[in-house]
UniProtKB/TrEMBL annotation:
Cofactor(s) the protein requires to work: FAD
Keyword entries, A-Z: FAD, Flavoprotein, Oxidoreductase
A Pfam family it matches: Acyl-CoA_dh_1
All copies of domain Acyl-CoA dehydrogenase/oxidase N-terminal, residue ranges: 13-125
UniProt record similarity statement: Belongs to the acyl-CoA dehydrogenase family.
Organism: Streptomyces plumbiresistens
Keyword Protein transport: no
Domain Acyl-CoA dehydrogenase/oxidase C-terminal: start-end pairs: 261-380
Protein's name according to its UniProt entry: Acyl-CoA dehydrogenase family protein
Keyword Flavoprotein: yes
Length: 401
């Protein structure tokens, strides 16, 4: 039961179970530790053949897009469940950037012509897209850790990304430093400041991947499975997304909640996987003539992690359901899931002993994912603090004597 008295169905439909099962089988075969490390070392940072398979066989890019645009017609719930499986294997792909960040904005704000041209290509996987936010303000723009009042876009000051009307078109100037899959995306959705001081506003623009004046380069990141780029716009031609009256800040805020639900699902899948790897290892590893997992202290540590992961899973599932029903609890679920992933991966490194402390061991990949996502979308304490502030939890009431 949610806070409005509506009953939440905690079970999965046959279709949802099939999405998860099929995706897990594909990724288990094609995204093992060796394949993962090989993929992140390529120029795009992912395996294009795997992306094609995920698009053509499973329809993942269009999972949450309407059938009218070539999508599957599901909701954020199904996308979050699918991302639980991609998170389990840390599968590097443009799925988050394209399906969870860019496509919803195109659907919400795009003109009829823009949606008809771009969304079918996104749904079939032939076009990838990325959201470019000025500087390092992605979490703020998505209203996850602060109010997205638009100052992050430049606010008329130096810096950010500035948009200037030239004839019937627009030109962009500026830089974005944390663009997920921005180095390889065929389309960029760029948030920019327009209008000067008198009519200051934040708008979204479409920039084609081959546009003149667009300079982008993949950056070295803590989490190599989450490729990101620095994007520079040097008098770059752009097309306005929707119209000048579009309420971009509200759309970004709504997007932040649904994206957080998807990210929470990813983190839960990763936490569950690294916990399973650790449990399997302590069952086999012997010390003093008995399995390491038989020691009470080890059991207690893993039991604590198990409880944390299960709590995060419940929060993530509720957030995914709530996002499809207009509720906004994604940031809290994301905080819970990132904390669980950090705990599970840290204990995994510890309990694997000496081998766990080598960079070559896969436990480090999960720990880096936890830390990297906190840097991009958190940290955890700020996610919780902003959610608490938005709910007015700690406002002091006046006491009349």
């Amino acid at each position: 039961m949610d806070e409005r008295g509506r009953l939440m169905d905690a079970g999965f439909t046959a279709e949802q179970d099939e999405i998860r099962r099929t995706l897990r089988e594909v990724l288990r075969k094609r995204c093992g530790p060796a394949e993962l490390r090989a993929a992140v070392d390529t120029a795009p940072g992912h395996d294009p053949a795997l992306w094609t398979a995920l698009a053509e066989q499973l329809g993942l890019p269009g999972l949450a897009l309407p059938e009218a645009y070539g999508g599957v017609g599901c909701s954020v719930t199904e996308l979050a469940l699918a991302c639980e499986e991609t998170g389990r294997f840390l599968a590097p792909s443009p799925l988050l950037a394209t399906a969870a960040l860019a496509a919803p904005l195109l659907l919400a704000l795009g003109t009829g012509a823009q949606r008809a041209e771009l969304l079918p290509r996104i749904a079939d996987g032939t076009l990838t897209a990325a959201l470019a936010v000025p500087g390092t303000h992605l979490a703020t723009a998505l209203a996850l850790t602060g109010d997205n009042d638009g100052d992050w876009a430049g606010g008329g000051r130096a810096g950010g990304v500035q948009a200037r009307r030239v004839g019937d078109g627009w030109r962009l100037y500026g830089q974005a430093d944390q663009v997920l899959d921005g180095h390889s995306a065929g389309l960029l959705l760029v948030a920019a400041h327009a209008g000067g001081f008198a009519r200051s506003r934040t708008l979204l623009f479409l920039v084609r991947g081959d546009a003149d004046g667009l300079v982008r380069a993949r950056q070295t990141a803590l989490d190599a499975t989450r490729p990101r780029a620095r994007v520079q716009l040097r008098d770059t031609e752009a097309e306005l997304l929707g119209g000048e009256e579009a309420d971009v800040l509200t759309a970004l805020g709504r997007l932040g909640d649904s994206a957080a639900a998807v990210l929470a699902g990813e983190a839960v899948g990763a936490a569950d996987q690294v916990l399973g790897l650790t449990v399997e290892y302590v069952r086999r590893r012997e010390q003093f003539g008995r399995p390491v997992g038989s020691f009470q202290a080890v059991k207690h540590r893993l039991a604590d992690v198990y409880v944390e992961v299960q709590a995060a899973r419940s929060a993530a599932y509720y957030a995914a359901w709530a996002a499809a029903h207009g509720e906004q609890v994604g940031a809290l679920a994301l905080a819970q899931a990132l904390e669980a992933l950090r705990s599970a991966s840290a204990e995994g490194i510890q309990l694997h002993g000496g081998i766990g402390f080598t960079w070559e061991h896969e436990a480090h990949l999960y720990f880096k994912r936890a830390c990297g996502d906190e840097l991009l979308f958190g940290p955890v304490h700020r996610l919780r603090a902003h959610a608490a502030g938005a709910a007015h939890l700690f406002e002091s009431a006046e006491v009349t004597v």
